[in-house]
Amino acid sequence: MARIKSMEYFRVPPRWLFVKVTDEDGNVGWGEASLEGHTQAVEGCLDAWFDKFKGHDADDIEHIWQMAWRTGFYRGGPVFMSALSGIDIALWDLKGKKLGVPIYQLLGGKVRHKLKVYAWIGGDRPDEVEQQALARKEQGFHAVKMNGTGDVCWLDSPSVLDDVVRRIKVVKNLGMDAAVDFHGRVHKPMAKQLATLLQPHRPLFIEEPLLPENLGGIKELSQLTSVPIALGERLYSRWDVRPYLEAGCVDVLQPDICHVGGISELRRIASMAETYDVALAPHCPLGPIALAANVQVDAVSSNFAIQEMSIGIHYNNTGQDIETYIKNPEIWKVEDGYINVISGPGLGIEVDEDMVRKLSKDCLPWESPSFRGPDGEIREW
Protein backbone atom coordinates (compact mmCIF):
# COMPACT_ATOMS: atom_id res chain seq x y z
CA MET A 1 0.00 0.00 0.00
CA ALA A 2 1.28 3.46 -0.95
CA ARG A 3 -0.77 6.28 0.49
CA ILE A 4 -1.35 9.65 -1.13
CA LYS A 5 1.23 12.04 0.28
CA SER A 6 0.61 15.27 -1.61
CA MET A 7 -1.48 16.87 -4.30
CA GLU A 8 -0.75 20.07 -6.23
CA TYR A 9 -2.42 21.96 -9.01
CA PHE A 10 -0.97 24.29 -11.61
CA ARG A 11 -2.84 26.93 -13.57
CA VAL A 12 -1.05 27.23 -16.92
CA PRO A 13 -1.62 29.14 -20.15
CA PRO A 14 -3.51 29.20 -22.40
CA ARG A 15 -6.38 28.02 -20.11
CA TRP A 16 -5.52 24.70 -18.54
CA LEU A 17 -5.35 23.32 -14.98
CA PHE A 18 -2.95 20.45 -14.28
CA VAL A 19 -2.95 18.23 -11.17
CA LYS A 20 0.00 16.33 -9.69
CA VAL A 21 -0.46 13.49 -7.18
CA THR A 22 2.48 11.94 -5.31
CA ASP A 23 2.37 8.88 -3.07
CA GLU A 24 4.56 8.01 -0.07
CA ASP A 25 6.92 5.98 -2.24
CA GLY A 26 7.55 8.92 -4.54
CA ASN A 27 5.40 7.69 -7.43
CA VAL A 28 3.86 10.57 -9.38
CA GLY A 29 0.77 10.91 -11.55
CA TRP A 30 -0.50 13.84 -13.61
CA GLY A 31 -4.11 14.78 -14.30
CA GLU A 32 -5.99 17.64 -15.90
CA ALA A 33 -8.96 19.47 -14.36
CA SER A 34 -9.40 22.23 -16.94
CA LEU A 35 -12.80 23.94 -16.87
CA GLU A 36 -12.57 26.92 -19.16
CA GLY A 37 -13.71 30.13 -17.51
CA HIS A 38 -14.17 28.61 -14.04
CA THR A 39 -10.62 27.82 -12.95
CA GLN A 40 -10.87 29.37 -9.48
CA ALA A 41 -13.99 27.36 -8.64
CA VAL A 42 -12.26 24.09 -9.55
CA GLU A 43 -9.18 25.09 -7.56
CA GLY A 44 -11.36 25.65 -4.50
CA CYS A 45 -12.85 22.18 -4.86
CA LEU A 46 -9.40 20.66 -5.29
CA ASP A 47 -8.22 22.36 -2.10
CA ALA A 48 -11.02 20.69 -0.16
CA TRP A 49 -10.58 17.28 -1.76
CA PHE A 50 -6.82 17.25 -1.36
CA ASP A 51 -7.33 17.38 2.40
CA LYS A 52 -10.00 14.69 2.20
CA PHE A 53 -8.03 12.19 0.12
CA LYS A 54 -4.59 12.60 1.66
CA GLY A 55 -3.51 9.37 3.32
CA HIS A 56 -5.76 7.11 1.24
CA ASP A 57 -4.28 4.28 -0.79
CA ALA A 58 -3.44 5.71 -4.21
CA ASP A 59 -4.28 2.35 -5.81
CA ASP A 60 -7.91 2.56 -4.68
CA ILE A 61 -9.00 4.73 -7.60
CA GLU A 62 -12.61 3.64 -7.63
CA HIS A 63 -12.99 4.02 -3.88
CA ILE A 64 -11.66 7.58 -4.08
CA TRP A 65 -13.99 8.30 -7.02
CA GLN A 66 -16.98 7.06 -5.05
CA MET A 67 -15.92 9.09 -2.01
CA ALA A 68 -15.95 12.24 -4.12
CA TRP A 69 -19.32 11.34 -5.64
CA ARG A 70 -21.23 10.01 -2.64
CA THR A 71 -19.90 11.51 0.59
CA GLY A 72 -20.55 15.19 -0.06
CA PHE A 73 -24.36 15.09 -0.44
CA TYR A 74 -24.25 17.55 -3.37
CA ARG A 75 -22.80 15.90 -6.43
CA GLY A 76 -22.20 16.28 -10.12
CA GLY A 77 -22.00 19.44 -12.18
CA PRO A 78 -19.05 20.95 -14.03
CA VAL A 79 -17.00 22.15 -11.03
CA PHE A 80 -17.13 19.02 -8.87
CA MET A 81 -16.66 16.68 -11.81
CA SER A 82 -13.78 18.65 -13.33
CA ALA A 83 -11.95 18.60 -10.00
CA LEU A 84 -12.60 14.87 -9.70
CA SER A 85 -11.36 14.39 -13.28
CA GLY A 86 -7.99 15.89 -12.44
CA ILE A 87 -7.54 13.60 -9.44
CA ASP A 88 -8.85 10.48 -11.20
CA ILE A 89 -6.61 10.90 -14.25
CA ALA A 90 -3.58 11.52 -12.03
CA LEU A 91 -4.27 8.36 -10.01
CA TRP A 92 -4.56 6.25 -13.15
CA ASP A 93 -1.31 7.75 -14.46
CA LEU A 94 0.44 7.02 -11.17
CA LYS A 95 -0.78 3.44 -11.11
CA GLY A 96 0.17 2.74 -14.71
CA LYS A 97 3.66 4.15 -14.22
CA LYS A 98 4.13 2.19 -11.01
CA LEU A 99 3.20 -1.04 -12.79
CA GLY A 100 5.08 -0.10 -15.95
CA VAL A 101 2.10 -0.43 -18.33
CA PRO A 102 -0.14 1.92 -20.29
CA ILE A 103 -3.47 2.66 -18.61
CA TYR A 104 -5.32 0.92 -21.43
CA GLN A 105 -3.73 -2.35 -20.33
CA LEU A 106 -5.41 -1.88 -16.94
CA LEU A 107 -8.73 -1.28 -18.73
CA GLY A 108 -8.67 -4.59 -20.57
CA GLY A 109 -6.24 -3.97 -23.41
CA LYS A 110 -6.52 -2.06 -26.64
CA VAL A 111 -8.77 -2.97 -29.57
CA ARG A 112 -6.91 -0.73 -32.08
CA HIS A 113 -3.38 0.54 -32.59
CA LYS A 114 -4.18 3.98 -34.00
CA LEU A 115 -6.91 6.60 -33.61
CA LYS A 116 -8.71 8.72 -36.17
CA VAL A 117 -8.44 12.42 -35.27
CA TYR A 118 -9.75 15.83 -36.28
CA ALA A 119 -8.69 19.41 -35.65
CA TRP A 120 -10.48 22.74 -35.41
CA ILE A 121 -10.47 25.47 -38.05
CA GLY A 122 -11.91 28.97 -37.82
CA GLY A 123 -12.42 31.81 -40.23
CA ASP A 124 -15.51 33.82 -41.05
CA ARG A 125 -14.88 34.00 -44.79
CA PRO A 126 -14.56 31.16 -47.29
CA ASP A 127 -11.01 32.16 -48.30
CA GLU A 128 -9.87 31.99 -44.66
CA VAL A 129 -11.52 28.60 -44.26
CA GLU A 130 -9.76 27.29 -47.36
CA GLN A 131 -6.34 28.42 -46.10
CA GLN A 132 -6.84 26.88 -42.68
CA ALA A 133 -8.28 23.64 -44.03
CA LEU A 134 -5.34 23.27 -46.42
CA ALA A 135 -2.96 23.80 -43.50
CA ARG A 136 -4.70 21.02 -41.57
CA LYS A 137 -4.53 18.78 -44.63
CA GLU A 138 -0.78 19.37 -44.84
CA GLN A 139 -0.51 18.42 -41.15
CA GLY A 140 -2.01 15.03 -42.00
CA PHE A 141 -5.65 15.57 -40.99
CA HIS A 142 -8.50 14.26 -43.12
CA ALA A 143 -11.25 15.82 -40.99
CA VAL A 144 -11.84 19.21 -39.38
CA LYS A 145 -14.46 20.90 -37.24
CA MET A 146 -15.66 24.45 -37.74
CA ASN A 147 -18.04 26.82 -36.02
CA GLY A 148 -21.41 26.92 -37.70
CA THR A 149 -22.20 30.54 -36.99
CA GLY A 150 -21.10 33.56 -35.08
CA ASP A 151 -23.54 34.99 -32.59
CA VAL A 152 -27.16 34.85 -33.69
CA CYS A 153 -30.41 35.92 -32.08
CA TRP A 154 -33.42 33.71 -31.45
CA LEU A 155 -34.86 34.48 -34.88
CA ASP A 156 -32.21 35.96 -37.12
CA SER A 157 -32.21 36.69 -40.83
CA PRO A 158 -32.07 33.44 -42.83
CA SER A 159 -29.26 35.07 -44.82
CA VAL A 160 -26.83 34.50 -41.91
CA LEU A 161 -27.10 30.78 -42.65
CA ASP A 162 -25.91 31.11 -46.23
CA ASP A 163 -22.32 31.75 -45.15
CA VAL A 164 -22.30 28.51 -43.18
CA VAL A 165 -23.14 26.54 -46.29
CA ARG A 166 -20.49 28.34 -48.32
CA ARG A 167 -17.82 27.54 -45.76
CA ILE A 168 -18.58 23.83 -45.52
CA LYS A 169 -18.61 23.57 -49.32
CA VAL A 170 -15.08 24.95 -49.37
CA VAL A 171 -13.82 22.24 -47.04
CA LYS A 172 -15.69 19.46 -48.81
CA ASN A 173 -14.24 20.60 -52.14
CA LEU A 174 -10.78 19.98 -50.68
CA GLY A 175 -11.71 16.34 -50.15
CA MET A 176 -11.92 16.64 -46.36
CA ASP A 177 -14.68 15.72 -43.94
CA ALA A 178 -16.15 18.62 -41.96
CA ALA A 179 -18.09 18.62 -38.71
CA VAL A 180 -20.10 21.75 -37.93
CA ASP A 181 -20.31 23.00 -34.35
CA PHE A 182 -23.47 24.98 -33.58
CA HIS A 183 -21.91 25.57 -30.11
CA GLY A 184 -25.35 25.93 -28.53
CA ARG A 185 -25.49 29.40 -30.12
CA VAL A 186 -28.40 28.60 -32.37
CA HIS A 187 -31.96 28.43 -31.06
CA LYS A 188 -34.64 26.19 -32.49
CA PRO A 189 -36.13 28.56 -35.10
CA MET A 190 -32.69 28.86 -36.73
CA ALA A 191 -31.33 25.40 -35.94
CA LYS A 192 -34.09 23.68 -37.92
CA GLN A 193 -33.22 25.74 -40.99
CA LEU A 194 -29.48 25.28 -40.62
CA ALA A 195 -29.69 21.50 -40.22
CA THR A 196 -31.83 21.30 -43.35
CA LEU A 197 -29.45 23.48 -45.36
CA LEU A 198 -26.40 21.47 -44.30
CA GLN A 199 -27.86 18.03 -44.93
CA PRO A 200 -27.09 17.90 -48.70
CA HIS A 201 -23.43 18.62 -47.91
CA ARG A 202 -23.16 15.64 -45.56
CA PRO A 203 -21.33 17.00 -42.53
CA LEU A 204 -19.47 14.48 -40.43
CA PHE A 205 -21.85 15.58 -37.65
CA ILE A 206 -23.52 18.69 -36.28
CA GLU A 207 -22.48 19.45 -32.73
CA GLU A 208 -24.66 20.93 -29.98
CA PRO A 209 -27.40 21.98 -32.42
CA LEU A 210 -29.30 23.28 -29.39
CA LEU A 211 -28.35 23.92 -25.79
CA PRO A 212 -28.20 20.63 -23.86
CA GLU A 213 -30.97 21.66 -21.48
CA ASN A 214 -33.36 21.56 -24.45
CA LEU A 215 -33.69 17.78 -24.65
CA GLY A 216 -37.12 17.92 -26.27
CA GLY A 217 -35.91 20.28 -28.98
CA ILE A 218 -32.87 18.13 -29.71
CA LYS A 219 -35.10 15.07 -30.03
CA GLU A 220 -37.39 16.95 -32.41
CA LEU A 221 -34.45 18.14 -34.48
CA SER A 222 -32.99 14.64 -34.66
CA GLN A 223 -36.20 13.49 -36.33
CA LEU A 224 -35.94 16.21 -38.99
CA THR A 225 -32.46 15.45 -40.31
CA SER A 226 -30.31 12.50 -41.33
CA VAL A 227 -27.13 14.32 -40.29
CA PRO A 228 -25.59 12.69 -37.19
CA ILE A 229 -26.16 14.76 -34.05
CA ALA A 230 -23.28 15.07 -31.61
CA LEU A 231 -23.24 16.46 -28.07
CA GLY A 232 -21.92 15.79 -24.60
CA GLU A 233 -19.31 18.34 -23.54
CA ARG A 234 -21.81 19.90 -21.12
CA LEU A 235 -22.96 16.61 -19.64
CA TYR A 236 -21.06 15.67 -16.50
CA SER A 237 -21.82 12.06 -15.62
CA ARG A 238 -23.47 8.90 -16.89
CA TRP A 239 -26.67 10.09 -15.23
CA ASP A 240 -26.60 13.28 -17.32
CA VAL A 241 -25.98 11.25 -20.48
CA ARG A 242 -28.72 8.68 -19.91
CA PRO A 243 -31.76 10.83 -20.92
CA TYR A 244 -30.23 11.59 -24.33
CA LEU A 245 -29.53 7.92 -24.98
CA GLU A 246 -33.01 6.92 -23.88
CA ALA A 247 -34.53 9.62 -26.11
CA GLY A 248 -32.60 8.31 -29.10
CA CYS A 249 -31.58 11.83 -30.11
CA VAL A 250 -27.78 11.58 -30.09
CA ASP A 251 -25.70 9.68 -32.66
CA VAL A 252 -22.21 10.74 -31.60
CA LEU A 253 -21.50 11.17 -27.90
CA GLN A 254 -18.82 13.72 -26.96
CA PRO A 255 -18.11 13.51 -23.22
CA ASP A 256 -15.19 15.61 -22.04
CA ILE A 257 -12.77 13.61 -19.89
CA CYS A 258 -11.98 16.75 -17.86
CA HIS A 259 -15.66 17.34 -17.04
CA VAL A 260 -17.10 13.85 -16.45
CA GLY A 261 -14.93 12.56 -13.62
CA GLY A 262 -11.90 11.40 -15.58
CA ILE A 263 -10.92 8.08 -17.08
CA SER A 264 -13.13 6.06 -14.71
CA GLU A 265 -16.38 7.73 -15.72
CA LEU A 266 -15.54 8.17 -19.40
CA ARG A 267 -14.96 4.44 -19.63
CA ARG A 268 -18.40 3.78 -18.11
CA ILE A 269 -20.09 6.30 -20.39
CA ALA A 270 -18.43 4.77 -23.45
CA SER A 271 -19.75 1.33 -22.53
CA MET A 272 -23.22 2.70 -21.85
CA ALA A 273 -23.27 4.46 -25.23
CA GLU A 274 -22.28 1.23 -26.95
CA THR A 275 -25.47 -0.44 -25.72
CA TYR A 276 -27.45 2.25 -27.60
CA ASP A 277 -25.36 1.93 -30.79
CA VAL A 278 -24.00 5.45 -30.25
CA ALA A 279 -20.49 6.37 -31.40
CA LEU A 280 -17.87 7.82 -29.04
CA ALA A 281 -15.97 10.97 -30.09
CA PRO A 282 -14.55 12.55 -26.92
CA HIS A 283 -14.52 16.34 -26.72
CA CYS A 284 -10.99 17.66 -26.13
CA PRO A 285 -10.05 21.25 -27.05
CA LEU A 286 -7.80 21.05 -23.98
CA GLY A 287 -4.29 20.20 -22.89
CA PRO A 288 -1.91 17.28 -23.47
CA ILE A 289 -2.84 15.45 -20.27
CA ALA A 290 -6.52 15.44 -21.22
CA LEU A 291 -5.72 14.22 -24.72
CA ALA A 292 -3.44 11.45 -23.45
CA ALA A 293 -6.17 10.37 -21.02
CA ASN A 294 -8.71 10.21 -23.83
CA VAL A 295 -6.34 8.07 -25.87
CA GLN A 296 -6.37 5.45 -23.10
CA VAL A 297 -10.17 5.11 -23.21
CA ASP A 298 -10.38 5.42 -27.01
CA ALA A 299 -7.97 2.52 -27.35
CA VAL A 300 -10.23 0.12 -25.43
CA SER A 301 -13.66 1.31 -26.66
CA SER A 302 -15.17 -0.62 -29.55
CA ASN A 303 -17.57 2.25 -30.36
CA PHE A 304 -14.81 4.86 -30.63
CA ALA A 305 -15.16 6.91 -33.82
CA ILE A 306 -12.86 9.94 -33.83
CA GLN A 307 -10.85 12.04 -31.36
CA GLU A 308 -10.69 15.82 -31.19
CA MET A 309 -7.21 17.25 -30.60
CA SER A 310 -6.39 20.88 -29.93
CA ILE A 311 -3.03 21.21 -31.67
CA GLY A 312 -2.85 24.68 -33.18
CA ILE A 313 -6.35 25.62 -32.03
CA HIS A 314 -7.22 29.31 -32.30
CA TYR A 315 -7.03 30.10 -28.58
CA ASN A 316 -3.43 28.84 -28.33
CA ASN A 317 -2.37 32.37 -29.30
CA THR A 318 -0.42 32.80 -26.06
CA GLY A 319 2.33 30.63 -27.51
CA GLN A 320 1.55 27.39 -25.67
CA ASP A 321 0.21 24.26 -27.31
CA ILE A 322 -0.25 20.59 -26.45
CA GLU A 323 3.44 20.11 -27.21
CA THR A 324 4.64 22.77 -24.74
CA TYR A 325 4.33 20.87 -21.48
CA ILE A 326 5.63 17.43 -22.49
CA LYS A 327 9.05 16.11 -23.43
CA ASN A 328 7.84 13.62 -26.04
CA PRO A 329 5.67 15.74 -28.41
CA GLU A 330 6.33 13.29 -31.25
CA ILE A 331 3.41 11.21 -29.92
CA TRP A 332 1.01 13.75 -31.48
CA LYS A 333 2.27 13.27 -35.04
CA VAL A 334 -0.70 12.90 -37.40
CA GLU A 335 -0.29 10.55 -40.35
CA ASP A 336 -3.00 9.96 -42.93
CA GLY A 337 -5.68 11.19 -40.51
CA TYR A 338 -4.55 9.10 -37.51
CA ILE A 339 -2.30 9.23 -34.46
CA ASN A 340 -0.76 6.14 -32.94
CA VAL A 341 -1.97 4.81 -29.61
CA ILE A 342 0.60 5.89 -27.02
CA SER A 343 2.74 2.99 -25.83
CA GLY A 344 4.46 4.40 -22.72
CA PRO A 345 3.50 3.60 -19.12
CA GLY A 346 0.62 5.42 -17.46
CA LEU A 347 -0.65 8.17 -19.74
CA GLY A 348 2.41 7.69 -21.92
CA ILE A 349 3.46 11.34 -21.76
CA GLU A 350 6.53 12.80 -20.09
CA VAL A 351 5.36 15.97 -18.37
CA ASP A 352 7.94 18.76 -18.32
CA GLU A 353 7.44 19.76 -14.69
CA ASP A 354 9.99 22.58 -14.89
CA MET A 355 8.00 24.15 -17.72
CA VAL A 356 4.73 23.64 -15.86
CA ARG A 357 6.05 25.35 -12.74
CA LYS A 358 7.66 28.16 -14.72
CA LEU A 359 4.57 29.06 -16.74
CA SER A 360 2.17 28.61 -13.83
CA LYS A 361 3.73 31.56 -11.98
CA ASP A 362 1.41 34.56 -12.06
CA CYS A 363 -0.84 32.82 -14.62
CA LEU A 364 -4.20 34.59 -14.69
CA PRO A 365 -7.42 32.59 -15.04
CA TRP A 366 -8.91 32.57 -18.52
CA GLU A 367 -12.29 34.29 -18.79
CA SER A 368 -14.97 33.21 -21.23
CA PRO A 369 -15.83 35.85 -23.81
CA SER A 370 -19.41 36.91 -24.41
CA PHE A 371 -21.54 38.04 -27.32
CA ARG A 372 -24.02 40.89 -27.38
CA GLY A 373 -26.48 41.76 -30.10
CA PRO A 374 -26.96 45.25 -31.56
CA ASP A 375 -29.76 45.89 -29.07
CA GLY A 376 -27.52 44.99 -26.12
CA GLU A 377 -28.97 41.54 -25.50
CA ILE A 378 -26.65 38.79 -24.28
CA ARG A 379 -26.27 36.01 -26.83
CA GLU A 380 -24.93 32.49 -26.45
CA TRP A 381 -21.18 32.21 -26.83
TrEMBL record:
Matching PROSITE patterns: MR_MLE_1
The Mandelate racemase/muconate lactonizing enzyme C-terminal domain, residue ranges: 126-228
Cofactor or coenzyme needed: Mg(2+)
Keyword Manganese carried by entry: no
A Pfam family reported for this protein in Swiss-Prot or TrEMBL: MR_MLE_C
GO biological process annotation, one example: D-galactonate catabolic process
Keywords: Lyase, Magnesium, Metal-binding
GO molecular function: galactonate dehydratase activity; metal ion binding
SMART domains named in the record: MR_MLE (SM00922)
Name the UniProt record assigns to this protein: Mandelate racemase/muconate lactonizing enzyme C-terminal domain-containing protein
Organism: Hypocrea virens (strain Gv29-8 / FGSC 10586) (Gliocladium virens)
Source lineage: Eukaryota, Fungi, Dikarya, Ascomycota, Pezizomycotina
